[in-house]
Amino acid sequence: MAEVKPAARPLSPHLQIYRWSWTMAMSIAHRVTGTGLYLGTVLIAAWLIAAASGPAAYETAQAVAGSILGRLVLFGYSFVLLHHMVGGLRHFVWDTGKGYEPQTRMNMAKYSVVVSGGLTILLWIIVLAVG
Question: Does residue 16 belong to any structural domain of this protein?
Fold first, then answer.
């Protein structure tokens, strides 16, 4: 009896086939920042619990948040929050049926990093000037 060979199955497209683009990177970044927001929410909840637990716990939480490492974490969290927001606004524009042209999509993806970085720096300038 003759041996029957299975038909060659097509390979699923993967990163070796696609050329890396800004829109791909921002799609991944949007998912990563969403996860970061979950983790940052745990920190906010811990701060609120410390505030509700009394002056000693609150002072400890404030000391941790005011340290260099704490401020770096807060800076990162604010960048993640603003980057996710800008990415959401980019998706909102697409939901209106606009911005689908290839160059427009690339520009929106590139500028989302610039805008979120600029907003983060502006936010921290205001926070440090007021506080």
Answer: no
Q: Which helix (H) or strand (E) holds 6?
A: none
Residue 91 assigned ligand-binding role: no
Return per-residue pLDDT of the chain as tens, 131 residues: 667 777 676 666 665 677 788 999 999 999 999 999 999 999 999 999 999 999 999 999 999 999 999 999 999 999 999 999 999 999 999 999 999 999 999 999 999 999 999 999 999 999 999 97
Report how far residue 41's alpha carbon sits from residue 51's, in angstroms, rounded to the nearest whole number.
15
The pLDDT score that the predictor gives to residue 44 is: 96
Residues in the chain: 131
CA angle 42, 79, 122 (to 5 degrees): 130
Does residue 48 sit within a domain?
A: yes
| Domains: count for the chain | 1
Which CATH number is 59's domain given? 1.20.1300.10
Cα 126 versus chain centre, distance:
22
Closest residue by Cα to residue 82 from 115, 105, 111, 109: 115
Name the residue range of residue 112's domain. 22-130
Burial class (CB in 10 A: 0-12, 13-18, 19+), 116: buried
